[in-house]
Amino acid sequence: MSESQEPFSYPPIDPINFDLIIVGTALSESVIAAAASAVGKTILHLDPNSFYGSHFASLSLHDLSSYLTSPRSPPAAASASTDSDDVVIDLVHQHICSDAEIASYDESAFLDENSRKFSIDLGGPRALFSADKTIDLLLKSGAAQYLEFKGIDASFVFEANEGLANVPDSRGAIFRDKKLSLREKNQLMRFFKLVQQHLDVTQEEKISEEDMDIPFVSFLEKMKLPPKIKSILLYAIAMVDYDQDNSEICKDLLKTKDGIDCLAQYSSSVGRFPNAPGALLYPIYGEGELPQAFCRRAAVKGCIYVLRMPVVSLLMDKVTGLYKGIRLVSGQDLYSHQLILDPSFTIPSPLTLSASDFPSERLQMLSQRDIKGLVARGICITKSSIKPDVSNCSVVYPPRSLYPEQVTSIKALQIGSNLAVCPAGTFILYFSTLCNDADEGKKLLKAAMNALLTLPVSGNSESILSVQSDSEDTKPIVIWSAFYIQKLITSKFEFISSTPTPDGNLNYNDLLDAAQKLFGQMYPNEEFFPKATPPDDPTDEDDASGLTLDS
Amino acid sequence: MARNANKSLQAKLVLLGDMGAGKTSLVLRFVKGQFSEYQESTIGAAFFTQVLSLNEATVKFDIWDTAGQERYHSLAPMYYRGAAAAIVVYDITSMDSFVRAKKWVREVQRQANSSLTMLLVANKADLEDERKVSNEEGEEYAKENGLSFLETSAKTAQNVNELFYEIGKRLAKAKSSHETGMRLHSRAGQDRGGLFCCA
């Protein structure tokens, strides 16, 4: 999208009054645009970038590199003609990603030639559970008709000294596991029977209220489950981030009731769609398709789209201090009842503002950004798979599986060329983990990569060859890698709202909950995607098969 | 599936061109046989399907309209993904729309896959008195760029069916090569039982 084009002049936008202006086309913003259009709101949806998706975009290799390494500088505010009744407050843009480290190894010519064949997720690793609420929302909103998916072939958990083990997708798979003793299998049998009864509405027998409120890890211990199974349930199925056995540092201690919910979601995800053998799905062309599908949904309902349109300032009423509108880089002023901003925008502290008589307390809120933590993200490109015969797979490295001080789990996802995100014969691997600082995050990711991949020392290809011949099973060699640290900022509902940054989770459930909540706060009397959306394509209804499947 | 042992294929078709060139009118004429003098700017529909039976094959078209996202040059890459054919439309009464159509042709060449079939269509041929773009100009540009060229009128239906038949015939000969996956559908969901099933 960013390849050279004719000199660009900013078009005037017509009309100039809207119910809602949204800046940024990340997933949450796009979902809100689609939801608000569906209930008849007039919306202008802007993005300063030349591409859709903001922090959830999928980009070519070149675009990704330049996005990570050269944060765009905020455009100079156009014509400071302030003869209006508005107070003009310039927006500050703060990149949510930092500490980017990009390395290209021996194949830079190949990568240069094929840059546009890559479609790399900025917010990866991401996938959808077949039975999670994202799928329901895609169907309910009508966005699903613009998307195609493939199943992730396999899910693995990394075990210290043993490498990759399958995450079981059925009871049969657990009972075929030769590493478990008969006694352990019987304990598992008891556990599954209990969970099954608990989830079955027709059954009386339930897990006790008391047990539902204790940490899931304690409940699993009470059920005498072997450590290996406990670890799979907690980190590879419930996908918790922090070491559940270390209550001092654990920031997300999972309760039994939430653990059971995760088990239920996983269980109903497996095999929900034929042709998707596991629990996870991934969109063809990458996660950047998801915001695009919601934006198209919004456009169909009348939402106006303008890419490459930076917003430079907010317009506030001089007397009331309330939000009135925005000023574009072109100098044009636009007005709306509500505004949603991408989380990378803030405003300067009110103290530095010159308009001293302006009721500035309101601005205090917006100028303070709560950074809830950091996510370290890593991307590798390889020319072979981490597991022969498997193209697309997920991997979880539970806490302490890489080294004793590892307190968070690491999530990874390998995507191959049959998802149309990379040239034939290449693979993209995504890694992420929560962390307290950039060094810790990168150390964790590098350890995870080194466990399955060979990261060459740049400019020294001979060492790779020797490593290769020494090791028994050849690890895929990384031909390109990137690391970056992303801030975690939650959404905010004020007189100006803002959306959250991508979180550290594999799926989108929490982000969609935040989007739905924000929508409800803005429009308390409106339904979030009314059910009666008629299908655009009535002829599809006579597809008796229910699923359009190929390949 | 395939009738009479005939080849059956599904093809995504996208329309491009200036606002008001007649993209939606062409589709409505083809799909519904209707024409409206004052077709509103496209919102609300933007997705049609139509089955075309040819001697060579049965072609099911998924026709994507721009949903207005072309207005500020903000079409999503999703629009071009997996498209088997593109129709670039201009209005013969507007030189501007012809100039813009050339830009759309370059945009398609840049964005879409190389096996895509592209046609250049000069619409509103019924408005001969107001013509600003000659037939020769359009034809010459199309020839230079290896495109098929047709003058159409959504109003009189001139060449509209021919346009879609031409695309259908070309697609029947071509091979589609893009990755396909599964579409979500709410009716899917026989629960295999997952972890807890006794089977």
From TrEMBL, chain A:
The lineage of its organism: Eukaryota, Viridiplantae, Streptophyta, Embryophyta, Tracheophyta. It holds the Pfam family GDI. InterPro entries: FAD/NAD-bd_sf, GDP_dissociation_inhibitor, Rab_escort. GO terms for biological process: intracellular protein transport; small GTPase-mediated signal transduction; vesicle-mediated transport. It is found in: Cytoplasm. It comes from Psophocarpus tetragonolobus (Winged bean). This is Rab escort protein 1. One of its GO terms (molecular function) is GTPase activator activity. Substrate-binding subunit of the Rab geranylgeranyltransferase (GGTase) complex. Binds unprenylated Rab proteins.
Automatic annotation (TrEMBL), chain B:
GO terms for cellular component: endosome membrane. It is a lipid-anchor. It holds the Pfam family Ras. PROSITE patterns: RAB (PS51419), RAS (PS51421), RHO (PS51420). It comes from Psophocarpus tetragonolobus. Keywords: GTP-binding, Lipoprotein, Membrane, Nucleotide-binding, Prenylation, Protein transport, Transport. One of its GO terms (biological process) is protein transport. SUPFAM superfamilies: P-loop containing nucleoside triphosphate hydrolases. It is found in: Endosome membrane; Prevacuolar compartment membrane. It comes from the Eukaryota. The keyword Isomerase does not apply. One of its GO terms (molecular function) is GTPase activity. Belongs to the small GTPase superfamily. Rab family. This is Ras-related protein RHN1-like.
